[in-house]
Amino acid sequence: MDDLDHRNLGVKLKLWHLQEDAPGMVFWHPRGYAVYRVLEDYVRRKMRRAGYAEVRTPQLLPKEFWGRSGHWDKFGEHMFRVDDGEQAMALKPMSCPCHVQIFNKGLRSWRELPIRYAEFGACHRNEPSGSLHGIMRTRAFEQDDAHVFCREQHVEDEVARFITLLDEVYRELGFPNYEVALATRPAVRAGDEATWDWSEAKLGNAARQCALVPQINPGDGAFYGPKLEFALRDRLGRSWQCGTVQLDAVLPRRLEASYVAPDGSRAWPMMIHHAIFGSLGRMIAILLEHHGGALPFWLSPDQVAVAPISKDQAGYCADVLAAFEDAGIRAVAYDGADTLSRRIVAAHEIAVPVMAIVGEREMRDGRVSLRERDGSQADVPLTKAVSRLQARARPDALKAEAL
Question: Which residues are tagged catalytic?
Answer without folding.
Answer: 96, 125, 143, 145, 147, 227, 273
